[in-house]
Design brief:
Length: 539
């Protein structure tokens, strides 16, 4: 922005300082001139009042009233004199250039009287400035000067009229002089001073501004431009300055800095080229070492996966084996009847379902390695999936005498893979059963959050709990706190939940139990890699 420019700021502040300095000087000069002109006017009024008083002294001593009238009237008609009056000690106007005022009384607040009464001093003790006053008559100002008429010996010893000797002041001579010419002179001086001050401010500001523009702004702007170019990588820029002041020294330092930066840039580029070659060599070595590590990790994972498959498939195979022996026992004894056929069909259905479960377990473990997307189906009932998972673990729950609490809410159907979700619930419930010792309790709660449009499943046990430092790692592959665990169970759970665009959270305290909290959306958002929703089950 233009107002952020250095030259604008410098010129602005130079202008402000110039206005303050010259304005102050002009104001002081005007004040002095005004006071000088007023002092001259007061001095002139004083001289006029004194001259007039001495001129009228003879007429007043001999009480020549007609001569007094003529003299006062003649003086009052002179140019620049507003009025001439004589008051007695009571404030009555005895003589005046305005005959209509003769005989009238002047109040204490009148222009001729308020000076004495305001300062509460005898008139003969007032200095000249306090005997004068300035007031306005019409459109112009008037300077009034009061001059006391003292009771001199010639006066109180005269035979024409007698005044007691103790009376010091007999009256007051009041002369009013127009200040129109003085005010005009003051106005002319003020206008001229203001004009010349404005011209001076403009001239000084312009001259200083041009000097700043040439000596400061342009070199600084070129330096700023050069800095920008150097920052962009142009190290061939050279700043030329013919001045020998600080700007010239700065230009010389700038050119030296640019040369050093150019040399440092070349050194850095050469170093980077050398480093890139070394990095490529090291990268090739690291890739070879990484390949060897991956091969070793694959061999180690094969053993862990084999253990996991055995652990996960053991329960469904035990169920299949139990039903197979039961049916074989009845068939060998040849004691089955037609009523046993529905039971056999039920056993076969369970065996088929357990076989599918084994297949699903293997597929889920492979899915963990290959990150296969779930086979989504519409209208999946979470409560029904949970009941299926519990039915597979009924025997284990009963053997451990675990108290099962089911609090299923009214849930809308969701889009999900029921086989994967059942595997999730089986894994969590199996872990809970393994963690539960005596007086075991397992609470399963399902609710629907309308605000989030998600189904929430809580699985809570009162088992041994998980250490606080292990909580952040429970879903990491191959992490386990069990002596014979593989660390893949909860990793599979996390992967399935994440593939359904859901969330899983675990809360646990050692000795108090663990709670797993699932949240699954009613319908996952479509992604580029989403598996289409299937209407039929998997074969």
């Amino acid at each position: 922005m233009w107002y952020r420019s250095l030259s604008v700021k410098l010129i602005f502040w130079v202008g402000v300082i110039t206005v303050i300095v010259i304005g102050t000087f002009a104001y002081v000069n005007l004040t002095v001139q005004r006071r000088h002109l007023l002092d001259e006017a007061i001095l002139g009024a004083k001289q006029l009042s004194g001259t007039l008083k001495r001129s009228l002294r003879f007429d007043m001593l001999h009480n020549y009233r007609e001569a007094l009238y003529n003299s006062i009237e003649t003086v009052g008609t002179q140019e620049g004199i507003e009025k001439v009056r004589i008051f007695n000690k009571e404030g009555e106007i005895q003589f005046s250039s305005d005959k209509e005022e003769i005989g009238k009384m002047v109040g204490k607040r009148a222009e001729a009287c308020y000076a004495c009464h305001a300062v509460d001093k005898p008139l003969e003790r007032l200095d000249i400035p306090k005997r004068s006053r300035i007031f306005k008559v019409g459109k112009h100002r008037v300077l009034g000067m009061i001059n006391p008429i003292y009771n001199e010996p010639d006066c109180y010893n005269a035979q024409c009229h007698y005044h007691p000797p103790e009376q010091k002041v007999l009256g007051v001579l009041d002369v009013s002089v127009s200040l129109a010419d003085t005010d005009k002179s003051i106005k002319e001086i003020r206008d001229k001073t203001t004009f010349f001050a404005a011209i001076t401010i403009l001239a000084v500001s312009t001259i200083i501004g041009l000097i700043i523009q040439r000596a400061v702004y342009r070199p600084v702007k070129e330096l700023a431009e050069g800095t920008t170019r150097v920052a962009a990588g142009d190290f061939d820029y050279h700043f030329t300055s013919h001045s020998q002041d600080e700007i010239g020294q700065l230009a010389e330092s700038f050119n030296k800095m640019t040369q050093r930066l150019k040399k440092a840039d070349n050194d850095i580029k050469e170093l980077i080229r050398t480093l890139e070659e070394k990095v490529e060599e090291r990268t090739s070595e690291l890739k070879a070492a990484q390949y060897q590590l991956l091969q070793s990790e694959k061999l180690a994972s094969i053993g862990k996966l084999a253990a996991t498959i055995a652990h996960e498939i053991n329960n469904p195979l035990s169920g299949i084996m139990t039903y197979t022996k039961l049916m074989e026992k009845k068939l060998n004894k040849e004691r089955f009847s037609r009523d046993d056929i529905p039971k056999f069909r039920s056993h076969l259905a369970i065996m088929e379902r357990e076989t599918e479960r084994c297949s699903s377990i293997v597929r889920n473990l492979l899915d963990f390695a290959r990150q296969r997307e779930p086979s989504l189906k519409p209208n999946v009932d979470i409560n029904a999936v949970m009941d299926e998972a519990l039915s597979l673990l009924t025997n284990q729950i009963a053997l451990q005498e675990i108290k099962l609490e089911k609090r299923f809410g009214q849930l809308p159907p969701i889009v999900a893979d029921p086989m994967q979700l059942r595997q999730v619930f089986v894994n969590i419930i199996l872990n809970a059963c393994e963690a539960i010792k005596d007086n075991g309790r397992l609470a399963i709660t399902t609710i629907f959050s309308e605000e989030e449009q998600m189904v929430k499943v809580d699985i809570k046990d009162n088992g041994v709990g998980i250490a606080e430092e292990d909580l952040p790692r429970v879903f990491d592959p191959f992490f386990t706190s069990k002596e014979q665990g593989t660390g893949l169970g909860l990793s599979v759970v996390y992967g399935i939940t994440n593939s359904h665009q859901g969330t899983i959270e675990v809360k646990s305290k050692v000795g108090e139990g663990t709670t797993f909290i699932f949240k699954l959306p009613i319908k996952p958002k479509a992604t580029e890699t989403s598996t289409p929703i299937e209407e039929q089950g998997m074969g």
